[in-house]
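Problem 12. The chain below contains 384 residues. Write out its predicted structure in token notation.
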Amino acid sequence: MVSKPHGGRLVDRVAKGRSRERLIAEAREMVKISVNDSIAADAANIAHGVYSPLEGFMVQEDYLSVLHNMRLSNDIPWTIPIVLDASPDELGDVKEGDEVALYYEGEVIAILRVEEIYGWDKREYVINVFKTDDINHPGVAKTMKRQELLVGGQILLLNDPPEPFEKFRLWPKETRVLFETRGWRTIAAFQTRNVPHLGHEYIQKAALTFTEGLFVNPLVGWKKPGDYRDEVIIRAYQVLIENYYPKDSVVFSVLRMEMRYAGPREAIHHAIVRKNFGATHFIIGRDHAGVGNYYKPYEAWDIFKEFPDLGITPLFVHEAFYCKKCGQVVNAKICPHSKDYRIYISGTKIREMILKGRKPPEYLMRPEVADVILSHPNPFISGS
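Solution.
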């Protein structure tokens, strides 16, 4: 039995048929708020139930409750504020009860009924969400550039934002049908923003040994410079699944959602989202959604103790390494040999090899995956 949606009901805020056509016409007369990639993706995720039980961008009561208590005002677990920021100039004389049109790249994507317009303390936000106000943290830097007002209210999605990887995307209502069709009662979900190395494969297959299916759900969208490009991640997983997984044991689908690099809080957020897709279990990395040294090792494991009512089972799989004595990828729980025999599978070291045009050895990465990465003229996101 796939998991129940978070909050008990899968949200659907997608306008359809004649109602949609009428609203698109009406939107032309509304105040326009232009949104970036991340907000456009959040709007689509709200409307399609990825963020159930949210039906819109947060009002102040929910925002503050999430910030300080990691729960919505109705006590449902939620750890990352989903907010729409706007400038006073954009909003003009918009007031509560008005409707505004959200535009992305010149096209209307949604209508928002304004319930509340309120200010926010960005430093309070970053200290609570990221546990730091260090501007070198990518999530802090991005937050500090946002507008000074937040707009809360229900949305209706009129158009999905363009998705270059549409053929690889499934919404929760689709994954739930697919899991049911396959007869999967237990599904382990895997979050990633990286290409797969043997450590990832080991963890996924460890989870697959005691669940009936694996749901690989990489994030596409905003990531920091130096991370892998979306198309490289997708192609790398395609060749891995084609060559090294039993047929029909994996469902692969991309999720357009920005990485926030919020460590423990983001681990809970990622679990809730995969629960909405129907997953019953969620694999948690040692440094899940971490960056730099802002979070302690296994801090993302510890936070799950605070959420016994989360409704999805966390899977804590120990860090994998290659043991020269065992002759395979293992972890400390099952390998008796000393550290002298261990080769830790470092994503940073693999990146360094790739930047030099070197193929990572087969005990770190499948050759087919390495070939995909090396065949791309620039597999990493550039930028300052």
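Discussion. The chain has a mean pLDDT of 96. Students who got a different answer should revisit the alignment rule from Section 12.3.
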